[in-house]
Design brief:
The complex is a heterodimer of chains A (188) and B (138).
Chain A lengths: L1 H5 L4 H17 L8 H9 L17 H20 L10 H9 L17 H4 L2 H21 L3 H10 L3 H26 L2
Helix pairs in contact in A: 3-4, 8-9
Chain B lengths: L1 H19 L5 H8 L5 H22 L20 H17 L3 H9 L5 H18 L6
Helix pairs in contact in B: 1-5, 5-6
Classes of the chains: A mainly alpha (188), B mainly alpha (138).
Chain lengths: 188, 138
């Protein structure tokens, strides 16, 4: 069983399980939207004093913080007991493109070590990708009113046109970054 | 308390799915935006198709939550600039950091402590949005 679970899960297993995650939360009376936890954390930190956007009863959102606490534990369980030794089977074209951009071992770990490590943080490209990248995620998710879970999964499942527009935006931004900006940033 | 154990358990399930499907991998997001593999499209696509069916069934049969209240869905207010501009900014960050909020938390559990920097920056971004909100087109 553990051996079976330790293999990488194909998309047709992972996708339906994500739907299950959303449905379980709905059955528990909640809605699936991870980026809301960022707003809640700001509220807990006292951001309500400077912006009424954070002036709400964060206790009503405590369930979501417990949910993401679970996600952290889930990541730990998977890394500790369901680990796979093999590299990520990336498309050959992706591997070659990344090697040309100076990423040495694409797919060997989940993240490129040159960038996503404490040493990497103190390089120009690492600093930009972690700090600016994180900022854009937090700013954009709240501006758009949701992230991948809230819009692409929950919103599209409920046939919300605003969510479709947001997802189109996700791709516009993602494609600009991938094709125009990352080649410059990665070779800094 | 019992409720919180169920939220925690659903979160654990989610973290394991995100890890084992490799959706937490920066490489998988890069590969997706380059259209080099079907993997991420399969994950999101199948989740959405089944999600549409699930939500329709919940509505059709007026399914109640475990708390006994009807499951409700909020209709989002229509706006083009808000979703398009906000979405584009999010997409820029998603492709750069290679993780959306769910994977950010999951990666922490996987032991990538430097992701704390991404999380802190995301909190700062959220806070900044809160400060500028009234000045932005919505």
């Amino acid at each position: 069983m553990i051996e079976f679970l330790s293999q990488p899960w194909p998309w047709y297993v992972a996708g339906p399980l994500i739907t299950l995650t959303m449905v379980l939360l709905l059955l528990a009376g909640k809605s699936f939207g991870v980026s809301d936890t960022l707003r809640t954390t700001c509220a807990i930190g006292g951001a309500g004093k400077v912006s009424d956007f954070f002036d709400f009863d964060w206790r009503s959102q405590a369930w979501n913080l417990v949910f993401v606490m679970g996600a952290i534990i889930g990541g730990f369980i998977a890394a500790s007991w369901l680990q796979q030794p093999d590299p990520i089977p990336l498309a050959q074209a992706t591997v070659e493109k990344l090697q040309a951009l100076g990423i040495e071992n694409p797919g060997e770990e989940y993240l490129p070590d040159e960038i996503f490590s404490w040493e990497g943080l103190f390089t120009l490209r690492g600093f930009i990708m972690l700090v600016v990248g994180g900022f854009l995620i937090g700013f954009g998710a709240r501006y758009a009113g949701g992230c991948t879970s809230g819009h692409a999964i929950s919103g599209l499942s409920n046939l919300q046109l605003p969510s479709l527009i947001a997802v189109i935006g996700f791709f516009i931004g993602g494609l600009i970054m991938t094709y125009l900006l990352l080649p410059l940033i990665l070779t800094l | 308390m019992k409720k919180y154990i169920s939220y925690l358990s659903i979160g654990v399930l989610f973290g394991i799915i995100m890890t084992k499907s490799q959706a937490i991998s920066w490489y998988r997001i890069y590969e997706m935006f380059r259209f080099d593999a079907f993997h991420m499209y399969g994950i999101i696509g199948s989740a959405v198709v089944l999600g549409v069916i699930s939500v329709a069934l919940i509505k059709k049969f007026s399914v109640k939550s475990t708390e006994g209240t009807p499951i409700t869905f909020t209709t989002k207010n229509m706006s083009i600039p808000r979703y398009l501009i906000g979405g584009t900014i999010f997409g820029l960050g998603w492709a750069m950091a290679g993780a959306c909020p769910g994977p950010i938390y999951t990666l922490l559990g996987n032991g990538y402590s430097v992701i704390l920097v991404v999380l802190a920056s995301a909190l700062l971004g959220t806070f900044t949005y809160g400060l500028l909100r009234s000045k932005l087109p919505h």
